[in-house]
Specification:
- By secondary structure, this protein is of the alpha+beta class.
- It has two domains: 106 residues, no CATH class; 85 residues, Alpha-Beta Plaits, CATH 3.30.70.100.
- A hairpin with a 4-residue loop joins strand 2 and strand 3.
- Helix 1 packs across helix 3.
- It is elongated, with a radius of gyration of 23 Å.
- The relative contact order is 0.16.
Amino acid sequence: MIGNKKLLGTSIVTALAASICCVTPVLAILAGTTSLASTFSWIEPFRPYLIGFTILVLAFAWYQKISSKKEVEIDCACEDEKPKFINSLMFLFLVTLFTGAVLTFPSYSHIFYSNSNSSKEIIYVEQSNVKVIKITIEGMTCSGCEAHIESEVNKLEGVLKVDADYEAANTIVQYDETKVDLLNIETAILSTGYKIVK
C-alpha cells in the first residue's frame, strides 16, 4: 500500500504544476519581479494531464483512507490511540481543499490585478489623436495573464482601452498618441515578462 504522505505530496505537487503558469505572475507581482511572469508558460499544454493525474491521486488517497479506516475498525476497536494529524481524515480534507483552490486558480486569478482603467479619468482633445494597435504577445496562457498585461498597460497615462486575449495571443490597445507612444506601451508589456512577437 502506497503511503498517504506520498500520495498527498504528489497531489499537491501536480496541482501546483498544473497551475504554476498562472500562479507565477501573481507571486512575481507580490515579490516585485514581474519579469518572471511567463517563466512557466511552457507547462500550459500539459495542464489537462496534470489536472487528471492530480484528481486520480486524490481519489486514490481518499479510497485508501476510507477503506483502511474500515479495516482498522474491523480488526480492532480496542485501540484508543489517535492517529497523527498528517495521517488524519482532516488533513486529507485540507489537502483536497488546497488542491482544488490551486487547480481553479486560473479562473479567479484576475482578482489579484488592479483595474486601473475603471478609476482613471481619460481626456483627449481630438479623435484624430486616438490610435489602435494590435500587438502579438507570446507566453499568455490564461485569463490571469490577460489581466496582468491589462493592469500594467492601463497604468500608462493616455491609454484609453486595453484588451488582451490569450487565445488569440494578442493585445489590442487604444491610446492617445499625444500622451503615450508605442514604445511606452511595449515597455509596459515587456515588464510583465511576456514577449512581443514582431
